[in-house]
Design brief:
This protein has 6 helices and 19 strands. The chain has 398 residues and is mainly beta. It folds into 2 domains: 42-210, STM4215-like, CATH 3.30.2000.30; 223-397, no CATH class. Strands 1, 2, 3, 4, 5, 6 and 7 form a 7-stranded mixed β-sheet that branches. Strands 10-19-12-17-16 form a 5-stranded antiparallel β-sheet, covered by helices on one side.
């Protein structure tokens, strides 16, 4: 019996009226700890299973509802995590029969399969910064379910109910990382230990996620580019720096973030800041200007007034400025969006903790022409002691 696969598509079947199941990798993180490992097989142990007239539907729902993708801290927990999910579909109200150990699920065979390139699933973002490597893996294995009953008919009934629960939970199991769950073998009721048992074997392809870790020393803010003439013996060489819409400020340099227009405005600013006390000195200036502008820019008493003026639909200000009095006030204006660890810039032997934040420019700053630009600059450059701030802009049409 195949619960999930159809034509090799590795997608669970969805009947009319059901919502499509989410792909593995979506949903909340849940860290699972390893379970018990008997000497003769990897097993979930005596977790009650099967079916009986006294089964409480609410108990089954509570036991058989994976919380989402299976996330573990190391790959040696993968088999136990798989069993923990499957054991939740055993009958929580089944009573042991005779001297039987109760229903169980064990792993008979297991092999490791690679996930993507080097088990890398992609990059996870902290706020707008893709700084966290997402890794995981896959297990291909055969698992055996065993249930018990006082009679052959009772054992059959409990196995039938278990298979029905697995079939009914195919979307939840898919969310938990079970890409394939195919019945491959089974046995008729057999007598032993004063009761009757039934077994069913399933081929499983199980994908797990490793808890995210940050290994990067820094974020990419600038890319140096060297070019030379394609002429033999030429000594002519040019060097350029590509910054895009992001910059890095530290004690070695703090170039302004210059955002040019051309039907693209600016809707958000984002920071990842490592600013040990005391916070470096100097204010932060937001200048909306254009090529050929003369005279001092018009000043505004608040950021809101500045944004309203430069986004005025009738007569927008093309040469105006708003200044945060200090770097600390600039950072405080951002809504916290998380934190991350990057490198050891101050060489104290401890990874640096960065505060990630986002600042919505409401309304956005329109930059309709190529001559228009928004500049974000530090009043005192560079920082006066070891500290780092990454600054990035998010573009919007306008």
């Amino acid at each position: 019996m195949s619960l999930f696969t159809r034509g090799g598509s590795r997608k669970p079947l969805v009947t009319a009226g059901e919502a499509p199941p989410a792909s593995p990798g979506a949903g909340p993180l849940s860290v699972l700890s390893p379970g018990a490992v008997p000497s003769d097989a990897v097993s979930s142990g005596a977790v009650p299973s099967g079916v009986a007239p006294s089964v409480r539907p609410e108990a089954l729902r509570a036991a058989a509802s994976p919380p989402g993708p299976t996330v573990i801290t190391s790959s040696d927990q993968a088999v136990s995590a798989l069993l923990k999910v499957l054991s939740g579909y055993l009958d929580p109200d089944a009573e042991p029969v005779g001297v039987t150990p109760g229903p169980s699920v064990v792993v008979l065979q297991v092999s490791d399969r690679a996930l993507g390139l080097g088990n890398l699933r992609g990059l996870g973002a902290v706020g707008p910064f893709p700084a966290v490597e997402l890794r995981g893996g896959q297990l291909e294995c055969v698992v055996r379910f065993q249930v018990w009953g006082a009679t052959p008919e009772a054992a059959d009934a409990r196995m039938t109910a278990l298979q029905g629960r697995l079939l009914g939970a195919r979307a939840d199991l898919w969310d938990a990382g079970f890409l394939q769950l195919d019945g491959v073998a089974g046995a008729l009721p057999a007598e032993g230990r004063g009761a009757w048992s039934r077994t069913a074997d399933y081929h499983v392809l199980f994908e797990y996620q490793l808890a995210p870790t940050v290994d990067a020393e820094s974020l990419i803010a600038v890319v140096p580019v060297d070019t030379g003439q394609e002429v033999a013996g030429s000594l002519v060489e040019e060097r350029a720096t590509v910054t895009g819409d992001s910059v890095r400020w530290d004690q070695t340099g703090a170039a302004a973030l210059v955002l040019r227009g051309g039907r693209r405005g600016v809707g958000h600013l984002a920071i990842a800041a490592y600013l040990p006390a005391p916070v470096p000195t100097g204010g932060v200036r937001l200048l909306r200007t254009h090529d050929g502008a003369t005279g001092a820019p018009a000043g505004y008493p608040t950021l809101a007034a500045f944004l309203a003026a430069v986004a005025d639909p009738v007569s927008p200000q093309r040469h105006g400025v708003w200044v945060f009095p200090s770097l600390a006030e600039f950072v405080a204006a951002f809504d916290e969006a998380g934190d991350l660890l990057l490198g050891d810039w101050d060489s104290d032997g401890v990874p640096d903790g960065y505060q990630v934040g986002q600042l919505a420019l409401n309304p956005p700053v329109p930059l309709p022409d190529a001559q228009d630009r928004l500049e974000v600059s530090l009043g005192t450059t560079p920082f006066d002691h070891p500290a780092v701030l990454y600054l990035r802009a998010a573009r919007v049409p306008g």
